[in-house]
Design brief:
The protein is an all-beta fold. It has no helices and seven strands.
């Protein structure tokens, strides 16, 4: 499992992983356009302050896991 918070957010998103390893992150807007992409290996903070307010989907995945979290940027 993993934790993505706060939600809603001002654009700073914390990602907590319960298992260390290589993960890819893709952030898509409500129509599916890719707006951010990142690679992480441990807990991290994602800066999405450059994005407009709205709803986004954060997809965190690797070979063993894929999770999509809906976040609101205010």
């Amino acid at each position: 499992n993993l934790n993505v918070y706060p939600n809603p957010s001002n654009g700073i998103i914390n990602i907590e992983l319960d298992k260390q390893g290589a993960y890819s992150i893709r952030v898509n807007d409500i129509v599916g356009k890719l707006v951010a992409e990142n690679e992480i290996n441990s807990n991290t903070t994602l800066d999405l302050q450059h994005l407009d307010t709205g709803i986004y989907f954060v997809n965190i995945y690797n070979d063993e896991l894929s999770k999509v979290v809906k976040i609101i940027v205010e």
